[in-house]
Specification:
Elements: H1 16-19, E1 30-32, E2 38-41, H2 68-76, H3 96-104, H4 108-119, H5 127-133, H6 147-157, H7 163-175, H8 187-200
Antiparallel strand pairs: 1-2
Helix pairs in contact: 4-5, 7-8
Length: 205
Amino acid sequence: MTDDSGSYSIEYSTNLRQKQGRGVVDLVVRAYDAHDTIVAESPVRFSARQNETIDFTIASEWKPQPTEFEKLKTALEPLLDQGSLGQLEEDNERQDLTFLSGETGFEKNLVARFVLAQRLLHLGIEREFWFALLGGSFFKYAEKNSLKKNLAIVSAVLHTLNASGVRKALTDSFNRREIPACLHERTEEWIKAFLQLVKRLPLRP
């Protein structure tokens, strides 16, 4: 992943030379967009030295594709009044998520994940963090339960997550291009804030 200035660094082992059965390394570097489409490719750098600089120029008409979170935000917020994300429900009486899924074309579990991330915002960490975390293996949206019940399940298991589990969920989410890459530098800050948060949460049976 490139940083905010567009710089990048890739490391490889010099043992690669031996594994290839020859005495030199030939390098080619490719840049991909959020949909894994190649947007730039370097010429082959034959007999590469130990340190090489390979620069790219991306065509001006190319624009980065929005992440899953950004697509959901763009699609959902125009359909909702300010603050109404916190009032949505999905149960026997109301099917707000079903309606939003039908209107936007997003699967209901993704809509639920976005809404739940909004509900967790009051805990003091950005929505993008919660959206990424809710994509981890510790939680699966249960359609048979109300949105309120799903939120209670999430709240009840947050204290069981450690730094390693949170980091993995964030890393996987970045790799799937679910949240903006520019937030990658917030990973350790988010993990620290989360661990401090769960210390303050009441334990549940």
